[in-house]
Design a protein that fits this description.
disordered C terminus, hydrolase activity, alpha/beta, 6-stranded mixed β-sheet, 13 strands, about 350 residues, Calcineurin-like phosphoesterase domain-containing protein, Metallo-depent_PP-like, Calcineurin-like_PHP
Length: about 350
């Protein structure tokens, strides 16, 4: 199995050529940001960040969600302004909703909005058709093409040069799982939509023998919390053991099962942090990491001068080459990562 990526030491900026990457047929780069802007004062530096990204001519840009702060109002006016900010990029832009953008909107500081109503508004505003944001749009497949999941326009899929990309609406704050009594309707319905969308993506990748799959979401699913050693959840866990419900557990288990059955390289990317991280997050029951699955966590506010850049080089190993970029192009120390186990 191909190793998912290699983290190099920082190098000078890539040449400003469209889809710049190592000189190999089909090679391209894409950029990932998230958790910006967090407040009104962030907008100007984020504008500079977006301009710097555009100058690198990425194939596309992904915003992992939280394009507003937790305490900023979830008003139409603010959402429309942040929409226009992303839409001003020249490159195609794929936006994934974050918890600050909808599921936290019931908080008084955010305007006491109904979260589901705000999610519906995001869908109307950011996903009116099958094109991305950005001045140079790209067509994507949306889960809303399926009648059963007509409302899930934010879940997308597209392919580029033998790599399949898939996005999921997985917000922070425990995946919007509610601890109050009664049915978690929004959570349960979205969980099933995500489950089917992710399963279909890997089925397509296997059938077409694609070189790699990239899965992107807003939330940190907390891969390091020991979930792989837990037994299946029990109805009595919450009542008798006072065990908190892991809103990401089903997703983590599905990812482990799907990646085991897929021979290509897998890259998981999420936000929900201020710091960059690179590791192998999926482990078996004995704690051994899966060497062909990598996870990258990108930056967020108050870090406003850095972004994540991924170069994709089909036909080479590693398929994904990930690095941090900074506005002034000064070197960023590479994170340490445990060597891949022998195959």
């Amino acid at each position: 199995m191909a190793l998912a990526m290699l983290m190099p030491v920082a190098v000078p900026a890539a040449p400003k050529v469209a889809n710049s990457a190592p000189d190999a047929p089909g090679a391209f780069t894409f950029t990932v940001i998230g958790n910006v802007p967090d407040r009104a004062e962030d907008v100007a530096p984020v504008r500079a960040l977006l301009d710097a990204i555009d100058a690198e001519h990425p194939a596309f840009v992904v915003h992992l969600g939280n394009l507003k702060g937790r305490d900023e109002a979830c008003s139409d006016t603010l959402l429309e302004a942040r929409h226009d900010l992303l839409d001003s990029l020249i490159a195609p832009v794929i936006y994934i909703p974050g918890d600050h953008d909808w599921s936290d909107c019931q908080r008084p500081a955010a305007g006491s909005f109904d979260p589901v109503e705000r999610l519906l508004r995001l869908r109307e505003l950011f996903y009116p058709d099958d094109n991305t944001l950005g001045q140079r749009t790209m067509t994507v497949m949306r889960q809303s093409d399926q009648a059963k999941f007509r409302s899930y326009r934010e879940n997308t899929r597209w392919t580029m040069n033998d790599v399949l990309f898939v996005t999921l609406n997985v917000p922070g704050d425990n995946n919007n799982y509610k601890t109050a009594g009664g049915r978690n309707g929004e959570y349960e319905d979205r969980l099933e939509a995500n489950r089917q969308w992710l399963a279909r993506a890997f089925a397509v990748a296997r059938q077409r023998k694609m070189a790699g799959v990239v899965v992107m979401m807003q939330a940190d699913p907390l891969f390091e919390d020991g979930w792989e050693r837990r037994r299946a959840p029990n109805l009595f866990d919450g009542w008798l053991r006072r065990r908190s419900h892991d809103g990401y557990l089903a997703l983590k288990r599905q990812l482990r099962a799907l990646t085991r059955d897929y021979d290509g390289a897998v890259l998981l990317i999420h936000g929900a942090s201020q710091t960059f991280m690179l590791d192998r997050p999926l482990k078996d029951e004995d704690g051994r990491p899966d060497a062909h699955v990598m996870r990258a966590r990108t930056y967020g506010s108050p870090v406003l001068d850095r972004w994540l850049e991924v170069s994709v080089t089909p036909g080479r190993t590693p398929l994904f080459h990930t690095r941090s970029r900074r506005l002034d192009n000064t070197p960023i120390p590479a994170p340490e990562i445990t060597p891949a186990p022998a195959q």
